[in-house]
Amino acid sequence: MKDLENKNDLTFKASKDFIAKSYIKKDDYDTLYKESINDPEKFWGEMAKKISWIKPYSKVKDVSFQKNDLHISWFKNGILNVSYNCIDKHLKTKANDIALICEADEPGNSKKITYQQLHDEVCKFANLLKYNNVKKHDRVTIYMPMICEAVFAMLACARIGAIHSVVFGGFSPEALAQRLIDCDSKLIITCNEGKRGGKIIPLKNNVDEALKIKGVDVKNVIVFKHTSNDVNMEKQRDIYYHEVEKTLKKTCEIEPMEAEDPLFILYTSGSTGKPKGVLHTSAGYLVYVALSFKWVFDYKDGDIYWCTADVGWVTGHSYIVYGPLANGATTLIFEGMPTYPDASRFWQICSEHKVNIFYTAPTAIRTLMKAGNEYVKKYDLSALKLLGSVGEPINPKAWLWYYDIVGNKNCPIVDTWWQTETGGIMLTSLPGAHLQKPGSAGLPFFGINPILVNDSGEEVNDSGNLCIKDSWPGQARTLYNNHKRFYETYFQAFPNKYFSGDSALKDSDGYFHITGRVDDVMNISGHRIGTAEVESALVSSPYVAEAAVVSYAHDIKGEAIYAFITLMKDVKDCEEILKEIKACVKKEIGSIAVPEIIQFSPALPRTRSGKIMRRILRKIASNEYEDLGDISTLANSSVVADIIEVHKELI
Ligand code: WTA
After folding, report:
1. Is the CB of 500 under 6 A from ligand 1?
2. Tell me: the pLDDT tens digits for 558-613?
3. Is CATH 3.40.50.2000 what the domain over 525-650 is classified as, yes or no?
4. Considering just the CA atoms, what is the radius of gyration of the chain in Å?
5. Is residue 424 in contact with ligand 1, taking CB distance under 6 Å?
6. 419 Cα–ligand 1 center, Å
7. How remote is the CA of residue 264 from the centroid of ligand 1, in Å?
8. By the 8 A CB rule, do 614 and 548 touch?
9. Is the CB of 315 under 6 A from ligand 1?
10. What is the spatial distance between Cα 430 and Cα 407, in angstroms, rounded to a whole number?
11. Is this prediction's pTM over 0.85?
């Protein structure tokens, strides 16, 4: 309990001026929040009027929890188009306003796209998709760097009713192929090459490799020429965008979509080796991200907003693309990384474009904090008025640095907790309504009813598994082609409640403090990676007999991967083998999943029934080996001492 009490100590409040201008003040929150929980139909029915409909909905909410199943539907019978809401809707008043600012990897190289230009580019792109026979509900995979064409591609799919699946550009050909096969994509959109931190990312080459893998059935590849280098192009199959661009019309009719028609699939890690295709639909998702964007970031017309996430993750979908554009905002997209050419890159961009709202991940904040204040101080950041954090718990030290040095003690910080499956922000402090507490994700957003339950499913007050009661419009509807897994993963553990997989504390002010995942998912630099995925990549090496993966606390990444490996008989552990094993993970998943530490061990600790005791390995990886608890149930308890010895030598 002491821990929990301490969490109440430090609080921060937005300035009087900020509060006076904010959309939601304390009293508004209290009243509206109650309304949203007591009468969700009324609340969301009103909020949904803020988006444009071709035909209005007849029922706001239709959610049924059954035994071993559930169905979620919002805004039934409504017809709309998401691309219309993000573009056409604004053309009357904002055709010449900037929709996108695209900042390249190298400084001094940015471009601005107005809403009219966004319209034209998206239409051209949509026409090309149609010309290549892409129809409503077809799946299109997007494998792109962080450039404006990635946004055009997403909105082009939405315009014609195709379902996009954006795959993070850092994933390997194998990981890409797995995702192409799962949703049976016939078309992929990519670039010849991407650039990040001065390095070339061979995207088209990766696509070529992925397309050789058995089961992939892609008929066409659309390729943007982003760098000057040429790449292999297969006649018939591959289309260079710039070669056909002139033939494409700048208008394209929107496809009328049902409220529950799918908008996108986004693959994310779970506790098995196979990634899950989280599926979001059109109306509920749009209503939720549009509203949460406006109120959480307190976005006002004319503000310049920048979210540094990658479009390959959900944050990029909801808060670079759909939330901001649905509000007619100016949203910045940056191809590069925070430390290239040096650790001032973020601050230089903020200063150059007079960014008002800045949203990033704790890993980036910790990296830049370590680099030193001088990188921040040399730029004028006076345009900043609000800061945001997402993706992992932010430790108070990093929070305070962000607040003092980046925000100059003048910008409220919204620490936003949410997930791929939730579609949008679920817990946060609203900047004009709430005190902020470093290290706490704050209070529920409207319509969100979070509770904590113990392992037996009983509701508890201060510490437990974080669940959400009932439904909200931005909630994922299913896992692509696997509704059973959807139910089992999220609704089976605690019936009739969505289980997030996170644990949390709740303090006496009702603020939530996320304490981490309770499942086999790790959070490495804000990226979700399943232990099973990494283990299966490790055992794909012919040298590896067995692997167990855990995470441990890391100063910069939040968590880092620690792999315990048993080699095949007669294989000697040496640098070469280590390199090859790491290369296997890079090949199967990508660099983000390569373990920070690999430890070889003649055996792994097992129970008598043969299960690896990860609990023990987790403790060893975290240097807590003095207190391993009861290990008498192990079949081979003698290996533990050896593993500890080798661990001590390694670190
Ligand atoms: C973690 C990212 C603490 C959490 C939007 C969650 C956070 C997982 C926060 C989802 C936060 C996200 N504080 N932890 N503010 N935001 N997380 O699906 O463990 O990539 O379950 O969505 O990130 O990651 P995902």
Report:
1. yes
2. 999 999 999 999 899 899 999 999 999 999 999 999 999 999 999 999 888 888 88
3. no
4. 24
5. no
6. 5
7. 19
8. yes
9. yes
10. 17
11. yes
